[in-house]
Give the backbone structure.
Amino acid sequence: MTSIADKASTRRRPHDSTATRRALLDAGRTVFDELGYDRATTREIGERAGVDPALIARYFDCKEGLFLATLAGGADDEQLDFEPRALLAFLVERWDERGHSPISRALASPTLTDDVRQQVSSVVSERLLKRLVEVLRERGAPEPELRAELLVAMAVGIAMTRANGTLETLSGAPRDEVLAALGPVVDALAAP
Amino acid sequence: MTSIADKASTRRRPHDSTATRRALLDAGRTVFDELGYDRATTREIGERAGVDPALIARYFDCKEGLFLATLAGGADDEQLDFEPRALLAFLVERWDERGHSPISRALASPTLTDDVRQQVSSVVSERLLKRLVEVLRERGAPEPELRAELLVAMAVGIAMTRANGTLETLSGAPRDEVLAALGPVVDALAAP
DNA sequence: TGATATTGTCAGCGACTGATGACATCAATT
DNA sequence: AATTGATGTCATCAGTCGCTGACAATATCA
C-alpha cells in the first residue's frame, strides 16, 4: 500500500516534476473539457490535480499554455478505423464522454486565439483529416478535403448539442440509434 | 436632422424606456453572438447600445436575463421554407453572419443554465423543429424528431467551425459550395 | 407651477481571476 | 555534511467583472 508511485493518491510524491506536469495536463484536459476554457479556473485545475496552481505558470507559462498542451497530447491515435461511418462513430463516442479531450470544445468555440486555432487545426488535420481525406479520395468522392471537414463539423455539432441537452430528442437518444440514423447520411457524404 | 427618434445616434433621447430596452437587446444580441456569453461584458453591451450598463439590471434583472431576452426575440420566423435543403441553407446562411442571433452559440455552448437550456429548447422547437418534423413526417422519414434535430445539430457544427476558422477548407469555402456538397447528405437524412 | 413617479448617471463595492515573487523544502553532488 | 539547483507553497497584487444604491434629470399630471 501507499506505493511510492501512487498517482491519484492524496499525497503527491514531492519534487517529481514529470508527475506534476502530467497531473496538471490530465486535470486540465478534464476541466477544460467539462467547463470550457473561460469557465475553467487555474485554481480548480490545481485542486483536481492535487497541485498548487502556481505550478501551471512554472511548467506551462500561463493558463493558455496549459490549454495548448492539453490539445496536443492525450489522444493516442492508435489503430483508428478511418472508414467514414466508423470514424464518425468514434468521434461521437469519444466526445459524448466528457473529460477526455477539449478539442471538440475548441472546435465549437466562438472566439479563438491565433495560437489555439493553429494548434487545433494542426492536431485535427494530422490526427483525423489527413487519413480521412485519403479514404474519401480512394472512394472517388469529390472535394475530399471539404467533405472530410464536413464530417468532423457534423460530429462537433452533434457532440455539443448532445452534451448540453438543448436538443432534447437528440440528447436523450442512445448513441446507437443516433449513429444508425446517420449511416446513410455519412454514405451520402462519402459517395462519388 | 437630429431626428428625435434617432436610434444609433450619439445622443439618446432621454427617458424613453422602450427605446432603451430595444437598444440593449440589439447590442446584447450582437455582443453575445460575437463573443459568446462569458466573454461578453455588460460594459461592452452598454457602450454599444449607447446606454449605461446599469440599465441592464433595471430592465432585465441581470446579465443572464438580458441573454434570455435576446434568445427569445430577434428572429422573425417569416415565411420560412421548411424543405430540409432550404432550411439547412437558411440556418448556415443566418449563422454565417455574426451579430444576429446568439442561439447558435448557445446550442454549441458546453455549459448552460437550466433557464437558458429551457429557453433555447423552446425557441428552437417552436421556430424550427415543429414544422421541420412535419415535413419529415410527410416524407415518410423514420424518427422525424431525431432527424430534425440532427439537421439543426449539423448546422450548428458547420456554423461554429466555419466561424472560428479551425477547419481551414470548410472555413474558406464559399457557402454555395458547402451547401452543394451537403445537398445529398440532407436528402439522405430526410429519406424514408 | 409644484408634486411625484419614471428614467438615466455615476462611483464604487465585493468577489473572482490569472499571475507574480519571496520563501520553504527537497534531492543530488561534492 | 554542506552547497546548490530544482521543486513546491503561500500571500498577495492588479485587473476585471456583475451588480448596487444614492443621486440627478426628465416627464407627467394635478
In short: Residues 1-10 of chain B have pLDDT under 50 and may be disordered.
